[in-house]
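User: My collaborator and I are trying to settle a disagreement about how two of our proteins should look. Neither of us wants to argue from intuition anymore, so we agreed to look at predicted structures for both before our next call. Could you fold the first one, then the second, and keep them clearly separated?

Assistant: That sounds like a sensible way to settle it. I'll keep them separate. The first protein:
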Amino acid sequence: VQLQASGGGLVQVGGSLRLACAASGMFFSIHDIAWYRQAPGKQRDLVASINSGGGTNYADSVKGRFTIVRDIVNRGNTVDLQMNSLKPEDTAVYFCRADVFPPGEILYNTYWGQGTQVTVSS
């Protein structure tokens, strides 16, 4: 299973970016997908997650600004993170993580994608 993260870049304060995390490979289903971020010198923190039932969870710092979306019909195993009203403190490397069930298994495996840099300039 591979996770491909994309969509990072440089944006001004108040701007928007949309990140995408695409899962590929052999698996039965996805339990949930999440976005984390890690700023220099800081720990990696959860930003948002979405489970197989569509339930979402957000860090308090991004509530009302970020939206995690999974459009199974049109985009399959891709999860987007729409980031609006960006602030300098949103600057970080963003990583996606997926908990994936292998075929015939009842326990999921966890995979991480490569990071994508988001820089918000003031």
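The second protein, kept apart from the first:
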Amino acid sequence: QVQLVESGGGLVQTGDSLRLSCAFSGRAVSTFAMAWFRRPPGRARWLVASISGAGDNIVYADSVKGRFTISRDNAKNAIYLQMNDLKPDDTAVYYCAAGGLQGRTVGDYDYWGQGTQVTVFS
């Protein structure tokens, strides 16, 4: 059974950094495209960044380009999201997701973590 567990969220100030981690178990993570989504308060979940199984194709939302970095370590069955220069608009629940295709929508991913809260105050 595939499981994803996020960690690393927290309460930070504008301009701070956080690193989110997602531990993957149940199958070889290298066979999955992975992604980070976020759900801001009162809004739908949307894609922040995605990475292919081999790590050679990466996609970012325009609002996080240059500030966030997605990476994966297939040997450790983990993916990460390094978030720098955080802003209040980054406040959201962040979710790790895994799927067979590197898509942009929620429906493209088959497995989800429980989410981790990131709150950025000014």
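Some points you might bring to the call about the second protein. The chain has a mean pLDDT of 96. Residues 59 and 91 are 20 Å apart (CA to CA).
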